[in-house]
Amino acid sequence: MHENKPETEYVILVAVDTGDDRSTIDAKSSLDELEELAETAGAVVVGRMIQKLPSFNASTYIGSGKIEELAYMILDKGATGIITDDELSPAQMYNLGKVLDTKVMDRTMVILDIFANHARTAEGKLQVELAQLQYRLSRLTGKGISMSRLGGGIGTRGPGEKKLEQDRRVIRNRVAQLKRELSEVVAHRELTRKGREAGSIPVFAIVGYTNVGKSTLLNALTGADILAENKLFATLDTTTRIYEYSREASASKQKVLLTDTVGFIRKLPHNLIDAFRSTLEEACYADYIIHVVDASSPDRISEMQVVYETLDMLLKGASKKIITIFNKIDKLPDPDDRLGLLDKRACETLQISAKEGLGLDQINKAIDSILREDRKYIELLIDYKDMAKLAHIKATGEILEEKYLDNGVWIRAYI
């Protein structure tokens, strides 16, 4: 019995830098990230090329001189394809493939491929297939030959090759069907959210750039045992867990819901944003945001900016209190590097290592502090026949003191 193993793809990364000296650094950094994406998708990077241009070439993405240089590089490195750092138009992809006579992929195709490979739940698979079909639909007209020559590998996982030469109407019908199925999932998610609101348990959405340790943090706090790997987009599916901890100032315990969300990334394809909107909107419906940052990343400032730009787009001007957690501090070579870990948009800024269990107690204090700001201080006598009210306050508020008297229970609390 023979096992069919996927053929390894050897690729060259190609980027266009359209800015000044500062953006040259950004282009190199973006290409580093593209290399991580390519490796996560199963490709081997054998070369790189960056061309500085005032704007992308409308026909071929890069200039004619660089195309000739790239053709020689493909032969020299034995590459089986190229990946561009920006999404290509159908014309650019077709022209590059024709001139270079090799497989042409763009950043969007690679991200979609990774999502297809990592989707586990029915909802995740529906979202990925919808995004892939929308991406392919825009590339059908007159591109049947160039698209069908892709063969296997990156860009062909998920729903599989859908015979891209077939009538656009067939794909549009499938897209419409997927949207209907996803709308049912969204309706179910709305019911779940309403149930949480009725329970009055505060909800914290964990957001952040991909591979900053969001899933590791959720596992460390709640024992969720969800997949946590050192890979981009290791987990796509939303996970919500109850987190209960003891307070220092009182004997009562606090319950909150922690919701892990899909990671953000530069140049996140619009099709993915639309397809995963119901998942991304967990941040919109949460009461508070926990923003996780990789403290050891040299690009953490730009990564934080990407997260906030995506949040601003989702929240549409709504303001939410934020706890920023700089994770992976154990990877900082110099303790003085921690002095630069700041976030002006956050109410609380913490430094931890979720993997090593360092600083996790700070999270409890930060959650307590942010919750108390939005609560009201009361002194109240509760009649013994209304003990359900006391139980509710204990479950959703903070009891500072309680005394059992003849005519009821007297409490000092935050509600």
Please provide a written account of the structure.
The protein is an alpha/beta fold and 415 residues long. Helix content is 42%, strand content 21%. It has 14 helices and 13 strands. The protein has helices at residues 21-40, 64-77, 90-100, 107-118, 122-137, 144-148, 168-199, 214-222, 270-275, 277-280, 282-285, 300-315, 360-373, 387-396, and strands at residues 9-17, 43-52, 81-84, 103-106, 203-208, 239-246, 253-260, 288-294, 322-327, 348-351, 377-382, 398-405, 408-414. It has a 6-stranded mixed β-sheet, sandwiched between helices. A 4-stranded parallel β-sheet has the order 2-1-3-4, sandwiched between helices. Helix 3 links the parallel strand 3 (81-84) and strand 4 (103-106). Helix 1 (21-40) packs parallel to helix 4 (107-118). The longest helix is centred in the middle third of the chain and has 32 residues, at 168-199. The protein is elongated. Residues 142-150 have low confidence and may be disordered.
- Segments where pLDDT lies below 50 for 5+ residues? 142-150
SSE series: EHEHEHEHHHHEHEEHHHEHEEHEHEE
Mind describing the biggest β-sheet?
A: 6 strands, mixed
Mean pLDDT: 82
Taking the alpha carbons of the first and last residues, their distance comes to 66 Å
Helix content: 40-55%
Which strand order do you get reading across the main beta sheet?
Answer: 6-7-5-8-9-10
Radius of gyration: 25 Å
* Helix/strand/pairing category: alpha/beta
Strand proportion, as a percent range, falls in: 15-25%
- The geometry reads as elongated
In total, the number of strands is 13
